[in-house]
From TrEMBL, chain A:
<keyword id="KW-1133">Transmembrane helix</keyword>
<feature type="domain" description="ABC transmembrane type-1">
    <location>
        <begin position="62"/>
        <end position="269"/>
    </location>
</feature>
<dbReference type="InterPro" id="IPR000515">
    <property type="entry name" value="MetI-like"/>
</dbReference>
<feature type="transmembrane region" description="Helical">
    <location>
        <begin position="65"/>
        <end position="87"/>
    </location>
</feature>
<dbReference type="InterPro" id="IPR035906">
    <property type="entry name" value="MetI-like_sf"/>
</dbReference>
<keyword id="KW-1003">Cell membrane</keyword>
<dbReference type="GO" id="GO:0055085">
    <property type="term" value="P:transmembrane transport"/>
</dbReference>
<feature type="transmembrane region" description="Helical">
    <location>
        <begin position="252"/>
        <end position="273"/>
    </location>
</feature>
<feature type="transmembrane region" description="Helical">
    <location>
        <begin position="196"/>
        <end position="218"/>
    </location>
</feature>
Automatic annotation (TrEMBL), chain B:
<dbReference type="InterPro" id="IPR001188">
    <property type="entry name" value="Sperm_putr-bd"/>
</dbReference>
<keyword id="KW-0574">Periplasm</keyword>
<keyword id="KW-0813">Transport</keyword>
<dbReference type="GO" id="GO:0042597">
    <property type="term" value="C:periplasmic space"/>
</dbReference>
<dbReference type="Pfam" id="PF13416">
    <property type="entry name" value="SBP_bac_8"/>
</dbReference>
<feature type="signal peptide">
    <location>
        <begin position="1"/>
        <end position="29"/>
    </location>
</feature>
<dbReference type="InterPro" id="IPR006059">
    <property type="entry name" value="SBP"/>
</dbReference>
<protein>
    <submittedName>
        <fullName>ABC transporter</fullName>
    </submittedName>
</protein>
<dbReference type="InterPro" id="IPR006311">
    <property type="entry name" value="TAT_signal"/>
</dbReference>
Length: 287, 358
């Protein structure tokens, strides 16, 4: 039985190696090369990595990507908790409908959502027009669009469903009796959340947070099209290096560095997850 | 269309097969199918119809999204099946240095006799007196502005000096042009623009960092910029020509400024990948001659609207049509700064990333 299983899995494994690992290997190899106009010099060197470590620009772009990831994880967590609670505890027979509804924005495509947000946030947009009409402001608020505020707001909107999914799983596994017991023993709501709900749903928070984080770090359209002049990301820098500058080696080295840091981050998160009961059951399917 | 082609090929094959031994049916022998890497707006079916009907050649198109993408594709080994490419004239260097293109035999393209002097005298696309990239069509990348929202025609200084338009300006997210414009603004002599030294690059960087505060955003697609003009988010931008035509047609009052510091001119070229030979090569030469000829030139001038690199169609156009594509007064070409390939382009890109990340 298990032998048959192995054979059946073989094509998938081969496909994964061919389409995922081999290109990554090529990328990794390129990161040790050098470029001279259009010629790739294949004598291995660590110069590209030295360049990244020595460059404030690339260091700060990578740092900024991780910071953005953390900010968006925090925003989606704050919004996601009540939403997930509502779906899990008040959803009733509508639960699956609510979860589907939550995913609807994802069906519309990146560009559509980005341009829709422009209509809402622009100087001539819905919010500014309304505020001007209501007499709240005389000049449009420029910072609503083409600013870090705009890009983080939309990133949070884009990836909120992934956080809610994680938290919803967390809530489903949370025994209400524990919450009730805490209340009966006189714990105020904040303490109930902090000492019972949060620790018990933490695996869901970490799982959702990991997904959101990785997607934010890798996103490039949203900051580029909504972030204004400061919307540059490490991904767009890699894109410039591969495309415009034909510096595939340096582009590869930055990509590999980013990947390694992300891998490290995920490893830590996965380790934390594996230390928790619900986490174990999420990962390995054991109860 | 493909259905038709298949049927025609099938018939050709059958006819050729049955008659092969007895009759040299040259006209019916399978004509080559050419694969052309090209911008979508240059290869509209109606533009190519006269050539296809005349030659019996078929053309498959592989549309490009950017020059860089075209080079990356060919460089990554995608050149084996491509018969004709359309690189920026300033980028032909890359293809030559990578050994991706072959020398063009001008004798096989009669219309090259009509190429404008500005291109004949330009070193772009050539090496050792041989031509590898043949100028195809050209235009300017101008400063476009909303006439209704600005008091006077701006020049490049509006992107570098504080004014009431600060926060309503846009610049393309592209190292080459961003640095060129800063250099023009800083009045660095034209012959030095593509050979900037460290001190000049530092000055450019300072200007571009100052510029960043004045911008609403950087734009990356022309559709995006058109949208920004239309909604009034942006009143002036370093632009391409299409938003000017498109928004004027929609009733907005758009202007093209003629900055005293100069305007960026560009040209795209036609180049033939190495390895194209025999019948296919002959067909490619015929196609190139058509693309530089009057039928195509007229359609491109009206439909594009863009000017081809030859004077083939010039006399067939009205004064307005000539003005639209900047060929009424040919001396205007002398004021353009043609996009070239900077010596230290990697430093330019690094600088541009530093500016954006600052």
């Amino acid at each position: 039985m298990s032998r048959t299983g192995n054979w059946l899995a073989a094509p998938v494994v081969l496909a994964l190696i061919a389409t995922c690992l081999v290109p990554m290997g090529v990328l990794f190899a390129y990161s040790f090369f050098q470029v001279d106009f259009v010629a790739i010099n294949t004598d291995p060197t660590l110069k590209n990595y030295a360049k990244i470590i020595g460059s404030e620009t690339y260091r700060s772009l990578i740092g900024r990507a991780f910071l953005s990831g953390a900010v968006v994880v925090a925003i989606t967590a704050v919004i996601g908790y009540p939403v997930a609670w509502f779906v899990a505890r008040r959803g009733g027979e509508w639960k699956s409908a609510l979860l589907t509804l939550l995913l609807v924005p994802l069906y519309t495509g990146d560009m559509v959502r980005i341009f829709a947000w422009r209509v809402i946030l622009g100087a001539e947009g819905v919010i500014n027009r309304f505020a001007q009409w209501a007499g709240l402001i005389t000049e449009p608020i420029q910072v609503l669009l083409f600013s870090p505020i705009a890009s983080h707001l939309v990133l949070a909107y884009n990836f909120l469903p992934f956080m809610v999914m994680g938290l919803w799983l967390g809530y489903e596994a949370l025994d209400d009796a524990l919450v009730e017991a805490a209340r009966d023993l006189g714990a105020p709501p904040v303490a109930v959340f902090r000492r019972v709900v949060l620790p018990m749903t933490l695996p869901g928070l970490i799982a959702g947070g990991m997904m959101v984080f990785v997607m934010v770090v890798g996103d490039y359209m949203t900051p580029q099209l909504l972030g204004g002049a400061s919307g540059v990301t490490v991904i767009s820098a890699i894109n410039d290096l591969f495309g415009t500058a034909f510096d595939w080696p340096l582009g590869s080295a930055i990509a590999c560095t980013l990947l390694a840091l992300l891998g490290l981050f995920l490893a830590v998160a996965a380790y934390a997850l594996s230390r928790m009961n619900l986490g174990r059951s999420l990962i390995s399917g054991e109860a | 269309m493909t259905h038709d082609m298949h049927r025609r090929r099938f018939l050709q094959a059958v006819l050729a097969g049955t008659a092969a031994s007895a009759l040299p049916l040259k006209a019916l022998a399978a004509q080559p199918d050419l694969l052309w890497m090209v911008w979508e707006n240059l290869a509209k079916d109606e533009y190519l119809a006269p050539f296809l009907a005349r030659s019996g050649v078929t053309i498959s198109k592989n549309f490009i999204g950017s020059d860089d993408e075209q080079f990356a594709k060919l460089r990554a080994g995608g050149d084996s099946s491509v018969d004709l490419i359309t690189p920026g004239l300033d980028k032909v260097d890359y293809y030559m240095a990578s050994g991706l293109v072959q020398e063009i035999d001008l004798a096989k393209i009669p219309n090259t006799a009509k190429i404008y002097d500005a291109f004949k005298n330009s070193p772009l696309g050539k090496a050792d007196g041989k031509t590898y990239g043949l100028p195809f069509y050209w235009g300017i990348n101008p400063l476009v502005y909303r006439k209704d929202l600005m008091d006077a025609e701006p020049d490049w200084s509006v992107f570098f000096e504080d004014s009431k338009y600060a926060g309503k300006l846009a610049m393309r997210d592209y190292a080459l042009e961003a640095v060129m414009i800063a250099a023009m603004y800083l009045e660095i002599p034209r012959d030095q623009i593509f050979h900037l030294d460290d001190a000049q690059l530092a000055e450019v960087k300072k200007a571009l960092i100052a510029q960043k505060k004045l911008l609403r955003t950087y734009w990356s697609s022309i559709g995006d910029l058109t949208n920004l003009f239309a909604t009034g988010e942006v009143v002036a931008a370093y632009s391409w020509v299409p938003p000017y035509h498109e928004l004027n047609a929609r009733g907005l009052s758009m202007g093209i400024a003629n900055p005293k510091q100069g305007t960026i001119g560009w040209a795209d070229s036609l180049a033939i990948p190495k390895g194209v030979e025999g019948e296919k090569l002959e067909a490619v030469y015929a196609l190139i001659d058509y693309l530089l000829g009057e039928d195509y030139g007229k359609m491109l001038a009206v439909g594009g609207p863009y000017a081809q690199s030859t004077s083939s169609a010039r006399d067939m156009l009205s004064k307005e049509e000539r003005e639209t594509i900047f060929i009424e007064d040919m001396s205007v070409m002398d004021s353009f700064i043609w996009r070239s390939n900077p010596e230290r382009y990697n430093d330019w890109v690094a600088l541009w990333n530093e500016v954006k990340a600052s």
